[in-house]
Design a protein that fits this description.
This protein is mainly alpha-helical. Helices cover 60% and strands 7% of the residues.
Length: 170
Amino acid sequence: MEVNPEVFDALQAEKQELDILIENGVKFKTPIRSWLRFLSKTKERTFIIQQPYLGTLDYITAEYIRMDFSEERIKEDPLGESKRLALVNAKRCARIIALCILNGKLKIALFSGVLTQYLLWRLTPSKLFQIALLINTMSNIADFTNSIRLMSTNPRATAPDLIEKKEPKA
């Protein structure tokens, strides 16, 4: 099969870019704001978010489900509801990012609390928004959903097809 170099498949290119992003992970930086910044050559700390393992995805999804968010309340009182959401969900957002960075059962058990507190005091709302978009991309929920779809459809592909259930042909 010959490939025409003039034909550009935007969907295929986007899929390839997404696969590379998921495979390599994404880096983001936070400022070093402690007294250690005077001893360090760099003024920023770099973190990497990679595609989460299924166990990490389980932890992340549990946090998503616990989030309190209502479009109706935002429409009724945009400013007041935004402030309430910050109070209720800021730590949860930092925890989700910490879980994605750690991405392992033992690391999550040992360091998620410390890293959550660190991120809570280093991330701005605009940085949180950027990272939230990355996490949704890196979580690859589409492939997860398709995997479930494949696993849950007729587990017995070789099961006999009973004649009694078939409609008579006219």
